[in-house]
Design goal:
The chain is mainly alpha-helical. It has one domain (2-160). It is 64% helix and 8% strand. The chain has helices at residues 2-7, 9-33, 38-74, 85-92, 103-117, 124-158, 175-180, and strands spanning 95-96, 101-102, 162-166, 184-186, 201-205. The longest helix is centred in the first third of the chain and has 37 residues, at 38-74.
Length: 207
């Protein structure tokens, strides 16, 4: 049980911290937009989204590094290839197979829609709240996804051949996850998560 509690611990810390920081960033944006002209609205919205993205990258890097270190430890290896910023940026530019979009391009699309929509919105506060919810959802999905990707990267670097799939059995666990609990897969044949924000996890099968 303790293993499950800690597997996504870094991701959960990142999600909470980013949601808290984004509330501050976008709360400040609300105040500024109430007295800004259209030109300044564009600048303020751009700055808010860019600041939030910088924070997301910083926290995701810590999540990936922690997941990599934990996985290396589980594989009985010392850290070899360390997760760096380039690894993270490459990952955030790849299409996430369940969300079906790339993190950074999707973030930029959200920013572009906000730049276009916020200046003409009748209720700017309501639109900002809606945008914030969308960002929060995206952050939550990818914090988990980054954890999984860094874990798999570590197992590959450690030469792990087989892994065991684990699912927590509660009333939120889907039938597919229940069915795969305890199954062993070759790492190269590991199936994709069955749904977005799936919190099943894998451990190495060691001789």
């Amino acid at each position: 049980m303790s293993e499950r509690v800690t597997f996504y611990d870094a991701a959960d810390r990142a999600i909470k911290a980013l949601n808290r920081e984004n509330l501050r960033i976008f709360g400040r944006l609300k105040t500024k937009l109430m007295r800004a002209d259209e030109l300044h609205v564009i600048r303020e919205v751009t700055d808010a989204y860019d600041d939030a993205l910088k924070l997301a990258k910083r926290w995701f890097l810590e999540v990936a590094r922690q997941a990599y270190a934990n996985a290396m430890r589980d594989a009985g290896k010392r850290k070899r290839n360390w997760i760096d910023r380039d690894w993270l940026l490459d990952y955030l530019e790849e299409t996430e197979p369940l969300a079906l979009y790339r993190f950074i391009p999707e973030w930029e699309r959200k920013k572009a829609r906000a730049i276009e929509g916020f200046p003409v919105a009748q209720d700017k506060g309501k639109e900002i709240d809606k945008a914030l919810r969308e960002l929060s959802k995206q952050i939550g999905w990818f914090a988990v996804s980054v954890t999984d990707a860094a874990t798999i990267q570590a197992f590959e670097d450690a030469g792990v051949i087989e892994v065991m799939w684990h699912a927590e059995h509660d009333n939120r666990t889907c039938k597919t996850c229940h069915g795969m609990d305890g199954k062993i897969f070759r790492l190269e044949d590991l199936p994709e998560k069955p749904h977005v924000n799936c919190r099943c996890w894998i451990t190495p099968v060691l001789e």
